[in-house]
Structure formats: C-alpha cells, structure tokens
Amino acid sequence: MSFLLDTHAFIWSVLEPGRLGEKSRAALADPSSDVFVSAVSFWEISLKTGIGKLQLEGCSPETLLEAAQAQAFQLLPLSPEDACAFHRLPRTAHKDPFDRMLIWQAISGRHTLITRDGGIRRAYRAHKLATLW
C-alpha cells in the first residue's frame, strides 16, 4: 500500500513516533508499505522554521531530510503536472495551501494520507481522499 505523510505525521515519525496513531505506526512498520514524504512538507517545515512558527528540538529541516532518507521514506517531488492540475482540487472550508497540495498529491497519486487532522478527513472524504491515523 502507498502512503503519503502529512507534515505533522512526518515530523512525529522522526522526532516523536509515539504521537502517531496506532494504525499509522503499523503502516510505517510494515515492510510492504511504500511511504512518501512530499517536497511540499520540506518546504512547509523550512518556511515555518525560518519565520519562527515551528521549532524543531535538536534538529533542522536538513536533518529531517536525512532522517527521511535513513528511514527509507521515498521523496515525492512537486511536479509541474501536480502544480498545473491543482486547480481541480474541490474547494472546501480547508484553506491551508500546504495541506491542500498534500491532499491533491494524495488523491492524484492514489496515496493514503497519514494525518491526524480531522478537518482534512471530513472535508475530502467525499472526494476520494483515503486517510489513516
């Protein structure tokens, strides 16, 4: 099965895995799972760290990239095709641009999005977004 980590789920998988839901931990531990981290998450982490909105205890955005590679997570680029087709994502009350692009990548790439965000799960369930927590 193919999974895409929401940004918070990625950070927690590296720094605080106990904060992940039980099903999410099981999916990440399953050797048959394909787990992706999007370039969008790295951009969000770097941006929020740079403006002081996110503090990473004892690491930097660069060390999170190294940790993703060490955990054999696959890196999902933001392709021009994803960026151009993003307008197809249905409008909902969920406005966060980082989340919306991750949602689009999950839907278009047929990944299950690992997220704790109930707003995402409720807003996009009817739009073919599979989620896990």
UniProtKB/TrEMBL annotation:
Name by which UniProt lists this protein: Virulence associated protein C-like PIN domain of Sll0205 protein
PANTHER family attached to this UniProt entry: RIBONUCLEASE VAPC16, RIBONUCLEASE VAPC16-RELATED
Coiled-coil segments: none
InterPro entries listed in its UniProt record: PIN-like_dom_sf (IPR029060), PIN_dom (IPR002716), PIN_Sll0205 (IPR041705), TA_system_RNase (IPR052919)
A Pfam family reported for this protein in Swiss-Prot or TrEMBL: PIN
Domain PIN: 4-124
